[in-house]
Design goal:
Layout (H helix, E strand, L loop, with lengths): L2 H14 L22 E6 L4 E5 L5 E2 L5 H12 L1 H7 L27 H10 L5 H16 L7 H10 L1 H13 L6 H12 L2 E2 L1 H12 L14 H14 L5 H7 L4 E3 L4 E6 L3 E6 L10 H14 L14 E6 L9 H9 L4 E10 L1 H14 L6 E12 L1 H16 L3 E5 L2 H6 L7 E3 L2 H13 L25
Helix pairs in contact: 1-12, 2-3, 2-4, 2-10, 4-7, 4-8, 5-8, 5-9, 7-8, 14-15
Bound molecules: glutamine.
Length: 467
């Protein structure tokens, strides 16, 4: 058994014994759910899937549909119009509260029922059938398989959904809902009656965590900016009146539903889902909350957790490096005598702000006096963010202005990423880079004072952000 499944199994076993909570009964059909049903599933960013317990048992998605339908409406409307129609403030109230802004009637956020009904109404479609079809298509794309409905739960909610209809009529009266309240709540009940498994929900959550691209099917379901906004709303409003406490203890964007489904997203890491019908007072799955709390603690998943740098960014810094080129005894003597003029700084891993700042600090501490050659060995750097590339270029341009020659050894993809900054001479390996500096030194091309622009890829003064 692989280690992830083993950990899930162990967690499942430990939390199975947890009693307490009530199966939702206000939708009569939901009351028939088995309180013992309990499944956990995880999907990684690589699209690998893990599960324990009843992760293939189908249940209705209910409110866990809300973030996905929000993502669909957000795609249709764009961020400004979406925010104008549905707010993004945590209401701190129960899922079915009348959380409407005084005056405008704008619902507080899309994760409570009022906002979710308004959001469903905003999905562009010619008529309610077409709207339901688009929603089902969207949920299916998130799940990576064709989903269907539980007609009995749908009928049961239509028969008893007066409170949701009342919310819709209130919004209509306040002017914040333009569609027919009866039809729109029916569409909303349809969306809530979509059948999923915990394994499906994990893929859906992972798609949001993967910037909107389904990691299992590879399909781009929504734009990255839409996924980011959806996760933000989940983080602040996804757990109803338990949202604040959830962010304290678990610290992940999440969404729960009355049938006992619960999803959480580790952005860029994984999607996780739990199914267990008994709910706490805030309407969140008791075992779901316990499982996610334990998982977050054990794996340090809390978003506010300061990442621990397991590997150093700067691998080595120093002078006296020599290339493998054959040199005559005289050349060797000259190189040895000037060994302080060639300095190498090596780095590895991903360069984000913190790492780039560290690297530039190491460069400052290493540059030779009088000016010489700075060889930056970035062969083991795996990537750099655009902001960090600009920061690195500006820092190196400053070093170049003080008369140093900058020589970079890096892989093609890295050079392509920072291709806009040509204030340095690039090589495909440390040895070639050092050899070039040696050749320059032996040829007497000492970098004294700010260098004249050499054209092409040679070092040039003020090589900040220009091409
Ligand atoms: N269909 C349910 C309702 O609107 C969904 C609520 C929920 O899952 N919290 O009442």
């Amino acid at each position: 058994m692989d280690p992830v499944t083993k950990a899930l199994d162990e967690l499942h076993r430990r939390i199975s014994g947890l009693k307490g909570g009530e199966v939702a009964s206000y939708i009569p059909k939901l009351a028939q759910a088995d309180p013992e049903d309990f499944g956990i599933a995880i999907t990684s960013m690589g699209g690998r899937r893990y599960q324990a317990g009843k992760a293939d048992t189908e249940f209705t998605i209910q409110s866990v549909s809300k973030p996905f339908v929000y993502a669909l409406a957000l795609t249709d409307l764009g961020p400004d119009e979406m925010l104008r129609r549905v707010g993004a403030e945590p209401s701190g109230e129960a899922f079915n509260a009348i959380s409407l802004e005084p005056g405008t009637g704008r619902p507080a956020n899309p994760m409570v029922n009022a906002g979710a009904i308004a959001t469903t109404a905003l999905v562009s479609a010619a008529d309610p059938e077409a709207r339901s079809a688009r929603i089902l298509d969207c949920l299916s794309a998130f799940a990576g398989r064709r989903l269907g409905y539980d007609e009995e739960v749908y009928a049961s909610e239509v028969a008893t959904g007066d409170r949701n209809r009342a919310l819709a009529y209130l919004m209509r009266a306040a002017g914040s809902l333009s569609e027919d309240p009866y039809a729109v709540t029916a569409t909303y009940f349809r969306q809530c009656s979509v059948l999923v498994t915990a394994a499906d929900l994990a893929v859906m959550a992972a798609t949001l965590g993967n910037g909107g691209r389904n990691p299992v099917t590879g399909e781009r379901v929504v734009e990255r900016s839409v996924a980011v906004r959806t996760l933000a709303v989940m983080a602040t409003c996804g757990m109803y009146d338990g949202a604040g406490e959830w962010l304290l203890s678990v610290g992940l964007p999440a969404k729960s539903g009355v049938s006992g489904g619960l999803i959480a997203v580790g952005p860029g890491r994984f999607g996780v889902a739990v199914y267990s019908p008994p709910l706490d007072a805030a309407g969140n799955s008791v075992r779901g909350v316990a499982a996610l709390t334990a998982m977050s603690e054990r794996l340090a998943l809390h978003l506010m957790h300061v990442p621990v740098h397991l590997t150093a960014t700067v691998t080595d810094t120093g002078h006296g490096a020599r290339s493998s080129r054959a040199r005559s005894p005289e050349e060797s003597a000259l190189l040895n005598a000037s060994s302080r003029r060639i300095v190498v700084v090596g780095a590895q891993g991903e360069l984000e702000f913190t790492e780039t700042e560290q690297l530039l600090g190491a460069v400052e501490g290493a540059v030779p006096e009088p000016p010489g050659w700075l060889v930056l060995d970035l062969m083991a750097v795996t990537g750099i963010r655009p902001g960090s590339a600009a920061m690195l270029a500006a820092g190196l341009a400053d070093v170049a202005r003080r008369g140093h020659r900058i020589v970079v050894a890096a892989q093609e993809p890295f050079l392509a990423g920072v291709g806009g900054y040509s204030g340095w001479r690039a090589f495909a390996g440390r040895d070639d880079a050092v050899a070039w500096c040696e050749d320059q030194l032996l040829a007497g091309e000492l970098p004294v004072g700010p260098p004249a622009a050499e054209g092409g890829s040679g070092p040039s003064a003020g090589a900040g952000c220009g091409p």
